[in-house]
Design a protein that fits this description.
Number of strands: 12
Strand content: over 45%
Radius of gyration: 20 Å
Helix content: 10-25%
Shape: elongated
Strand order of the largest sheet: 1-4-5-6-7-8-9-10-11-12
Number of helices: 2
Distance between the termini: 38 Å
Largest sheet: 10 strands, antiparallel, barrel
Order of helices and strands: HEEEHEEEEEEEEE
Length: about 250
């Protein structure tokens, strides 16, 4: 699938969730809609286990090193609903390029990743209460290019490209532990499965409510994610873990 087709698929998933928003609004017109937008930063340490034709190429990349490789990055969560139902989208886009030297060769990489979660949440006792359960779609799009060169004379030894889209069913839950009227612990856990070999996400964020009407939150904590993808002879196993921070606007 081409990049334009991937963008179209991602837009279609977003449009589906917006339709859910509209359905929630129409079905519960008597209840006030609640919205939130959260831009965030995840300073993760990344371990990548890349196998090409049974040859393993991988390693750990610190956040400081990752900053040197990022050409563009964008992360945001948006949610809206009323009553016992809400819908959300969580979008991450990363464009990176880097050169890594191995024993006998160097590897030039260029990677574009688009990850979109689109889900509907059910709140048993209403939006804003501690527990919500969600289900939906996780879209993961990759455009990875690799060039292998000899260290001595920089001769091109070969190249490979992995361009793939993965559509997984997404299931998870969120729970908020309220410590006081301002402090709370926000937790999330989910799994997805389908086209990929499976993904797992675990998150725990401390939230501090700010503002005169106490509608907004400062969020900081930790997130862990593991995901494995296959595309022909290329297998990529990602492991991300590190601190996370964001600002939650509610209206």
């Amino acid at each position: 699938m081409t990049l334009r087709q991937r963008q179209t698929a991602a837009a279609a998933a977003l449009a589906a969730v917006l339709l859910v928003f509209g359905g929630i609004d129409s079905a519960q017109a008597d209840s006030a809609m609640q919205w939130s937008i959260t831009p965030y930063l995840w300073a993760s340490t990344t371990t990548v286990d890349l196998s090409v034709r049974d040859t393993s190429i991988g390693g750990e990349v610190s956040f400081r090193d990752l900053l040197d490789t990022i050409d563009a990055a964008f992360m945001v969560h948006a949610e809206g609903g009323s009553g016992q139902w809400s819908a959300f989208v969580d979008l991450t886009y990363i464009d990176t390029s880097d050169t890594n030297q191995r024993t006998f060769l160097s590897v030039d990489t260029r990677s574009k990743q688009t990850i979109l979660d689109a889900a509907v949440s059910w709140w048993p006792t209403g939006i804003g209460t501690p527990l919500s359960v969600f289900g939906g779609l996780r879209y993961s799009g990759f455009d990875d290019r690799y060039e292998f060169r000899s260290l001595g004379d920089n001769t091109l030894l070969g190249s490979t490209r992995s361009e793939k889209d993965y559509y997984d069913a997404l299931l998870g839950l969120r729970y908020v532990f309220d410590f006081s009227d301002r402090w709370a612990l926000h937790t999330r856990g989910d799994v997805s499965f389908g086209d990929s070999e499976g993904t797992l996400l675990l998150r725990a964020l401390i939230g501090y409510t700010v503002g005169q009407r106490r509608q907004n939150r400062i969020l900081f904590g930790y997130q862990y994610k593991q995901a494995e993808f296959e595309d022909g002879e290329v297998t990529t196993d990602f492991e991300f873990h590190g601190p996370m921070a964001g600002f939650n606007f509610r209206f």
